[in-house]
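Please study the protein below:
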Amino acid sequence: MKQEKFLDIPRSPHFSVSKWRESSPAEHLKSQGVEDFFPRENFLSEKVVRDKNIVTAVGNAFIDFSMEILDYFEAFEGADNNADKETFAKHYKGL
């Protein structure tokens, strides 16, 4: 029985994952002669970012993302909602 490959990705001498990791993505694109389309001046390297009614997060920050959504909808009660947020974080992060 012949095994078929799920993905057949050819190896290219022009694109290297290790090169991508060694330099910044912008430098890598420039070295490849490709225009950098990403608006880097607006990029924030944070786990969760909230701008007005938009909330976004990196993939592994799902608990922090949930907390920010709940905070947006004012789900944390009391005058000092930071205590509620800390309790929520401790419970769901297992701290």
